[in-house]
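Priority: medium. Attachment 1 of 2:
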């Protein structure tokens, strides 16, 4: 018997070939689990919803988007508008309590959100978002820009092992991020 999973998102995941079936807790949708996923939403359900376009990509890697909690959305928006511009990212989605940035249509996104439950946003212990840079110089520029914008230094850019170069900082809400380059 094939194991059953339920999709964690409201979108249907459909594979290119038939293999395992699975069901992740939390939803009623049935999905095929494969090495590579295609994300498709029913056309009739999402017709005329350009705000969902960034999520409707054809193929995805492991990370689609990351959300970071904030207690001051406008302050966080100014910080990330300037910081993520260093990576060529622009606002991809914006709602009353949520803003997301992407460097390319359908690419992975970084977002800030006021918590849905109405409670204050807090920093996750052990949680960090890593921003992929195209060079050591870009790591330096992102780290420098973050500090100029009021971020707290958590480790100056430099080598962190064989071919891994990174700089660490905390945003204005205390979320830990790094910019890294491998090569």
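Attachment 2 of 2:
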């Amino acid at each position: 018997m094939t194991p059953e999973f339920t999709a964690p998102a409201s979108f249907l995941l459909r594979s290119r070939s038939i293999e395992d079936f699975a069901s992740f807790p939390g939803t009623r949708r049935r999905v095929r689990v494969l090495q590579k996923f295609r994300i498709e939403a029913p056309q009739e359900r999402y017709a005329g919803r350009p705000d969902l376009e960034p999520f409707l990509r054809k193929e995805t890697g492991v990370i689609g988007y990351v959300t970071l909690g904030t207690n001051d959305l406008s302050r966080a928006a100014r910080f990330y508008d300037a910081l993520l511009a260093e990576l060529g990212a622009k606002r991809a989605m914006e709602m009353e309590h949520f803003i997301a940035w992407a460097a390319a249509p359908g690419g992975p996104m970084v977002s800030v959100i006021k918590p849905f439950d109405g409670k204050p946003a807090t920093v996750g212990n052990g949680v960090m978002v890593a921003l992929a840079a195209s060079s050591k110089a870009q790591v330096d520029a992102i780290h420098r820009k973050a500090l100029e914008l009021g971020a707290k230094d958590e480790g100056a850019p430099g080598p962190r092992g064989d071919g891994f170069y990174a700089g660490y900082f905390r945003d204005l809400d205390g979320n830990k991020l790094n910019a890294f380059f491998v090569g």
